[in-house]
Design goal:
By secondary structure, the protein is an alpha/beta fold. It is built from five helices and three strands. The protein has a three-stranded parallel sheet with strand order 2-1-3, sandwiched between helices. Strand 1, helix 1 and strand 2 form a beta-alpha-beta unit. Helix 2 runs parallel beside helix 4. It is globular, with a radius of gyration of 13 Å. The N and C termini lie close together (about 10 Å).
Length: about 110
């Protein structure tokens, strides 16, 4: 199975990628350096070119203090970025579970 992981360098993403590789999945591990989820065209291009069956969307700004200090950046990443990933999945037929832990428990 082909799986695109956003936020792959975070704590959950790092562990999840190891599990997916160990289970024999073909993964594309991305983080902001490889695919800034705030850029819809980049997200579309990555989803189109990799052609994932699933996208496990883990990218987010999680530092509460930083989010409070820069609410516009938090909104762009956590809301618009998630929308970009979801729309690209819809456009190219990839599945995007609401909770990656539920997906991992099933495969």
């Amino acid at each position: 199975m082909r799986i695109l992981v956003t936020g792959a360098k975070g704590m959950l993403g790092t562990d999840l990628c190891k599990i997916l590789v160990a289970r024999g999945h073909d993964i594309e591990a991305t983080d902001i350096q490889e695919m800034d989820i705030r850029d819809f065209d980049l997200v579309r291009m990555k989803v189109r070119t990799f052609g994932p069956d699933w996208v496990l969307h883990l990218a987010a700004l999680t530092d509460v203090d930083a989010c409070e200090k820069t609410p516009d950046e938090a909104f762009k990443t956590n809301t618009l970025g998630t929308q970009n990933v979801a729309l690209a999945c819809q456009e190219y037929g990839a599945r995007m579970p609401a909770d990656a832990r539920d997906y991992v428990a099933r495969v």
